[in-house]
Amino acid sequence: MNEHQTQSDQPRLLPAHLRRAVIGAPMAGGPTTPELIAAVGEAGGLAMIGSGYLDAAGTRAEIARVRELTDALFGVNVFLLDRADSDAALAAAGGPDAVARYAAAIGPVAQRLRVDLSRDPQFTDFDQDATLAALVADPVAVVSFTFGIPGADVVRALQEVGSAVVVTVASVADARRAVEVGADWLSVQSAEAGGHRSTTTVGEEPDNITTVALVRAVREALPQVPFVAAGGIATPDDVAAALVAGADGVQLGTVLLRTPEAGTSALHRAALADPRFTESRPTRCYTGRYARALVNEFVAEFDAVAPAAYPHLHLLTGPMRKAAAQAGDVEVPPLWAGSQWRAADAYADRPAAEVVAELWDSATTTT
Ligand SMILES: Cc1cc2nc3c(=O)[nH]c(=O)nc-3n(C[C@H](O)[C@H](O)[C@H](O)COP(=O)(O)O)c2cc1C
Fold this sequence. Notes:
It is a single chain. By secondary structure, the protein is α/β, with parallel strands linked by helices. The chain has a domain at 1-81 and 126-258: Alpha-Beta Barrel (TIM Barrel), CATH 3.20.20.70. Helix content is 39%, strand content 13%. The protein contains 13 helices and 11 strands. It has helices at residues 34-42, 56-69, 83-93, 96-112, 128-137, 152-160, 172-180, 211-221, 236-245, 266-273, 297-302, 312-326, 352-364; strands at 22-24, 46-50, 74-79, 142-146, 164-169, 185-189, 195-196, 227-230, 249-252, 280-283, 291-294. Strands 1-2-3-4-5-6-8-9 form an 8-stranded parallel β-barrel, surrounded by 7 helices. A 3-stranded antiparallel beta sheet has the order 7-11-10, with no helix packed on it. The chain is globular and about 55 Å long. The model has no long low-confidence stretch (mean pLDDT 94). The structure holds flavin mononucleotide. Residues 25-28, 31, 50, 52, 77, 146, 168, 189, 192-196, 230-233, 251-255, 336, 338, 340 line the site of flavin mononucleotide (FMN).
């Protein structure tokens, strides 16, 4: 137990308690490193471990690494995967045949990369219960959820050990549901966000709403609820616009991808700087769930034919994405990027603490 992380007699951590109300996005799969978390925390913000592709032991190990590096507070983000919802989405998309047809469509790409797509991609259960039990046994300041609304019992169990509970929502309706189960605050994520959109079902078609419009709508519907805004925030003007629209803070993803502390691959970093890319777009083509990426050849060709089958497509395309990245082939792997990836150029290679301080201070300091 790390005594400074949580004390259940202390108020749970809200954005307003931070020296700078800047959340370093959980970016599962490599970009968010313990070093990035420490840097954002020490700059007065709060960053989150992305446990989405880790099991409970992996999450515990990551927590231990962060604690070795810093005394700053941090959070852990958990994916809420629901097998019944995935099954329903797959059935609506045409069942296993739809995945087989997609495998056939992307087959030539896999062949070119000498990857076998013939395996039947199964649903893998990431055992969220074990991760949640680990977080109750050894609490952190904040636990955030993505892809679903946790049960009120889960929220209560985390709050009882002192953790603030955050739910990532992509609509006003989901914001209301998150408040109903007792969430302490929200991460309100618009269609501008890089990476996956946190819809609460696989099958739904999310809207194309901007961050400012969604923030206004959530603030109007829920005047008292603390929340941070996520999606396309990469300049002081973006931060200021989100705050004016009603957010209590901001969550940064893409603008942190090119900081030295991030674990972003060299290929991904180079692509974010490459003028060859002119568009980022939400697409199901990599995982079966909408996620915003730069439009490379793979997105351009397969976006339109990808079924709503998550995590089936995630598992199907995984080896191919890895092989392409290893081969330095920028036209195949996902190059996650929010709508403001080009504006984020201004902060490329700058230490994360500087990015956090400059974005927040420039937006909030009146002279
Ligand atoms: C590479 C990458 C990985 C991401 N992984 C996660 C994740 O594991 N969990 C999560 O809640 N959000 C994830 N997101 C979304 C962020 O939390 C955030 O909503 C988004 O980055 C904000 O938009 P921006 O990228 O335009 O700043 C990811 C975003 C990116 C760019």
